[in-house]
What we know:
46% of the residues lie in helices and 17% in strands. By secondary structure, it is α/β, with parallel strands linked by helices. The protein has a 6-stranded mixed sheet with strand order 7-6-8-9-10-11, sandwiched between helices. The mean pLDDT is 91.
Amino acid sequence: MFERVYCKVIRERLDEPRRFIQIVTGPRQVGKTTMIKQVLSTIKIPWMMYSADDVPTSRREWISDCWENARTKLRNEPIKNIVLVIDEVQKISGWSEVVKKMWDEDSFNDTPIKVLLLGSSRVMLERGLADSLAGRFETIKVPHWSYGEMREAFDFTLEQYVYFGGYPAAATLVSDEGRWAEYIHSAIIDATINKDVLVDAVVNKPALLRQTFELAAAYSGEILSLTKMIGRLQDAGNTTTLSSYLHLLDESGLVCGLQKYAVDNSRRRASVPKYQVYNNALKSIFCEATFKEALNDRKLWGRLFESAIGCHVVNSAFAHRLQPFYWRDGDSEVDFVLRSGSKVAAIEVKSNHERYNRGLALFRERFSPHAAFVVGYEGYPAEDFLKTKLTVLFE
């Protein structure tokens, strides 16, 4: 079975002395639970795994019961330590306070229980961590699958990755595009919005949130002001409402609004956003063209191609704590800008014989980036770029 690189990180953390709670976070359907099972099947440390999937949300004591089971096993068996794994922990109301209490008791009593928590809602997990567990945890951020992973695990071509994206469970459905589309709508979009965002966030207009997602996903790779976005939505609120909804969709790993790169922070915040999905399936599902039709439509394929490159950029930013932007000055534009500390990398995307854009040259003159290059036609091959760990751009 294919194993993602994050399995190695999790194993290394579990091999260390008990120091922090380990939190595995990331969007839905990226294989977090599967990775944990792969890790547990190979480690020598005893473990116990529980899932809150079917537990009533009000049963906070359920977490304590799981913890006590691990303590009992530790007391009654000749073992030095144990790993306690709780899946879907965010479904229990007030979970972080219970975890804090149990973890602090173990710390005080020198009880060697190593704790690994994971869940399908990145929004709810991270909110609980900020509320109660400061200083007690480390996060292992698991992004969407890259082209390299989809190629190795499912023999995806570059064109398949550009159109169908990187959801592993959907990879076996691509020969039946209707079935594939139904899976993306129900298991990804509906599940994330209905079970993650709307459950834990104050959303006064759920229908508007859904429309905001659909429009932002359809415009992935393009720049559209929130004011113009309001004009395309039914029952739209104001720009503040749309901005808050985009933030929720970003936290959920669906779609984000990239800010324009600028040295001045205030100018960044006031910029028109460039929309970018985290997985290209979320864009192509709204393009109303089949895979073959999209391949034969040069203009549409160019938009899908740029969005696929953007997926790699924003997922790398999420996993490695980089900051993603775009840049534009008049007709000059750089598709993606990544920042790591004081270093900046500029990335221009060309899918075909597009006219020359002097944006990259102008960006070099103004900002002296650590790296600046073209991906695609007459530049760095897209297949190689999509398999590159983007932290190398800052070495």
